[in-house]
């Protein structure tokens, strides 16, 4: 008779218990150094859909979005200040037009959902930044992305960089163009570009370089994702597909990062 | 990115290393560096070594053939392999040797890999010999490294020329000793028309430096009015990079030894879709078997370059 309420209560108790256990686990994890910026290459959505016989071109990507929410929640609880997500690369436009449209529509739907949550105060300290060549995307997405960035600009608890229409090579081209325009105005002497000039004009200039890159789906490559920024990052890959990525994968990756921290610090001092 | 692969720790087992080293030295002494007809080569082994002529290690006939091992398929061989030769110092430390002994062992390992690349149809091999980060090492080690490099180039000059290998050096050469620069220029000039294998040695190199120098060149051309800002694109930057010395500037496979899971500022732009392989062995221990494992792993991968495999 009271089944639904009992189930609801049971779920709440279970969630509270899980949350308490996570808190304890993260307290232990935080004894060691935590990466400042974790970046995720979210590979394996379509294989996940195929594995579980999910219908629809965007089924895998919808499952992937659920994974995004959990991972962001865990990162926030751990206290990771920055998270970067590789949502859609410039080379992904090579996929079938139907799939590209599906993914774009899904992203627009989620961005609009995030806008509602931001307006109603439910985004809880999360700032969202879109990095990439937004001019190559449709007008509606561009406008929604801009609005979401403005609404969440003041939030500081967790800064999420979502890379859309992104590729490092294009990012460097864009940065060179911008820094050329700046530098070529000054005087008649030789133009000397410095690393700081190029880095200052990159899409991801607002956030520090990733300390840890996690690639799901078993692939062992960077796929034109932040190859400049990840030159000294720890590269961790897992066979789990992106929608399967869970708490333990994240904890394992951070433990690995902590183990290799000494070497990483020495290399960083060289810059 | 390698953690799933568990290999026996060859670098810690003295006897295993000894056997592997003996086998390498024996092969080197009966099959000269990069030559395809047997010739005796002077043994340049490590100090703690070993005279190879009386090795008890069996030498299988398969290793002498020029054909690929059966695990590898010729149509799936990478055109360009890049290697970060990490672990010489640790290898020497594990044996209670000086760092320069590790580097000497590293050169022997490199010779073996170059030979295999030439035999197995790999067109370009890029090796990360000395990074901009390595300038902080003790002066004595840096001087040794450059003199070892100079001696190796001089001693292998003839072999490279005869075996149709082209050598190119990339990186910031402004801090290299003049004598080394002279040898480099000479060997680049003499081997520039060779076609069998191109060996690119990155000395004083960093990926960011490479991209930056390309961007500086482009920025100066914009300033001089040669090109417009809007004309700057990926192709233009690619043409200015130091890897413009080769027809295949993008590595298909990057191998890093010694278990480090990092790219360490090597070939930044060019690594966009390169398959990465991280080997646990230290570089002097990474021989033929490690190379075959890396190539096998490469051949099993699905490369999509952002698209979809239908």
From TrEMBL, chain B:
GO terms for cellular component: chloroplast stroma. Pathway: Protein modification; protein glycosylation. One of its GO terms (molecular function) is ditrans,polycis-polyprenyl diphosphate synthase [(2E,6E)-farnesyl diphosphate specific] activity. GO terms for biological process: plastid membrane organization; polyprenol biosynthetic process; response to cold. Its cofactor is Mg(2+). It holds the Pfam family Prenyltransf. The keyword Transferase applies. Keywords: Transferase. Its EC number is 2.5.1.-. InterPro entries: UPP_synth-like (IPR001441), UPP_synth-like_CS (IPR018520), UPP_synth-like_sf (IPR036424). Belongs to the UPP synthase family. Catalyzes cis-prenyl chain elongation to produce the polyprenyl backbone of dolichol, a glycosyl carrier-lipid required for the biosynthesis of several classes of glycoprotein. This is Alkyl transferase.
